[in-house]
Amino acid sequence: MDSPVGRLTVTETDGAITAVDWNGNAQDETELLVAARDQLHQYFGSGSHVIDLPVRVAGSTFLIEICAAMSAIPAGETRTYGEIARNLGVSAQAAGQGCGANPVPIIIPCHRVLGARDLGGYSGAGGIETKVWLLRHEGAAGLLI
């Protein structure tokens, strides 16, 4: 699907969303992929900033835990890598690396995690500019003005 942050490809595996990529390879349309497209269109439009889809993260226990921590951050709010790290008992650097390894960006909102003194990074297409766009879109832009 086309979006304000580029062309996105959502991947479904066995009834769960498992990836969001920029310019990835499209799958045949399924009910879940149609629902994902509809919810993402609402997210990018003037509708809801809540995306409620079944998601499965394949990877280490740490990646699963950090993705769960990011998923718990409400739209319009942010956390720091340090806050996430303290809650998981890891270093801020490890939290940053985990955020960067998020296989389902936007749906799992890694853009809501910031550095203590800066925006941190963003591994999606467009890098930090995409992160800034997403934060402004969600109304978390007070810190960016």
From TrEMBL:
Any one Pfam family match given in the protein's UniProt record, by short name: Methyltransf_1N
Methylguanine DNA methyltransferase ribonuclease-like domain: residues covered: 1-54
Cited NCBIfam families: ogt
PANTHER family to which the protein is assigned, alphabetical: METHYLATED-DNA--PROTEIN-CYSTEINE METHYLTRANSFERASE (PTHR10815)
Name the UniProt record assigns to this protein: Methylated-DNA--[protein]-cysteine S-methyltransferase
Entries under InterPro entries matching the protein: MethylDNA_cys_MeTrfase_AS (IPR001497), MethylDNA_cys_MeTrfase_DNA-bd (IPR014048), MethylG_MeTrfase_N (IPR008332)
Domain Methylated-DNA-[protein]-cysteine S-methyltransferase DNA binding: from-to ranges: 63-140
